Amino acid sequence: MHKMLAGGALSIFLLGTAMVGVTAAQPRAAAGPGRPAKPCNPRKQTCPDTTPPSIAIGAPAADAVVNGTVTVTGTASDNVGVTLVEVQVDDSAFQAATGTSNWTFSVDSTAYPDGGHRIRARATDASGNVSAAASRSVTFTNSPSGNPDVLAILNVRVDRPTLHALGVQVLISGDDNRSGRIDVRHRRAGDTAWVQGLPLLRVMPETIIESVPQQFAGSIFDLDPGTPYEIELHATDLDGAVDVTYQAIATTREVPVTDPVNARTIQVSNAAALRTALNAAQAGDVILLAPGTY
Predict the structure, then answer these.
(1) Number of compact structural domains in the chain
(2) 3-state DSSP call for residue 272?
(3) 69 lies in a domain?
(4) Average pLDDT rounded to a whole number, residues 246-267
(5) What's the confidence (pLDDT) of residue 22?
(6) Residue 24 lies in a domain
(7) How far apart are CA 114 and CA 128, in angstroms?
(8) Do 53 and 124 contact (CB within 8 A), yes or no?
């Protein structure tokens, strides 16, 4: 005979009329308040991913002194996969970087004051686990000697050309008191004589609706189509004895060929005719303006 009771059961084993064994089964402990849950066994079930990614900053180097546009690079890894890398400068909001396992992020250091700054990066995986942040201390120095009134040239850009004009942008830092100046002259490539142009204008970003960097900008007029020009920019600022010259080469746009399907030449002699011709213009049209005021 064998008899078993549930719970804290009493098991009795009989052979014939003789009792040969008595055992008392212990009740199974269940997870509950105060009791830790049994660890997940990945061999028997799908376990949740609780492992955070890891991240490292490769560049710039620790305590680097940088200026202009700073490229921050690094690596990130995870047991499943990294889905997002974000970068923060000082206490600003984290912003998404480009890439995951190998990532990059550009920082415009001119948007921050000269001095020490902290760059932090963090990674997130598909389960939402977030890595501990990697940190790198750097120094931004965009104004010579750290003087915010001294003009510093960061980059020179030539805009897309037109038939008779070339636009120039000079990105800067410093010059907080706006005493800097950039003069312009130009000449045809190969010529010896320079032609003095108008000085570049100091852009006032606070007066513009869209966000623009600190810069000087302007145009060189009365040029010939399809012609290469040498451009010389002379920057001065008495605040820091700045006296530097930059050169660029750019080519004006060639006169477009007429449209092979519907080539037209339109002659106008007043503002109304010019307005009508422009409103009806097609690719390849040539509008000839008679002498006059428009």
Answers:
(1) 3
(2) helix
(3) yes
(4) 80
(5) 47
(6) no
(7) 36
(8) yes
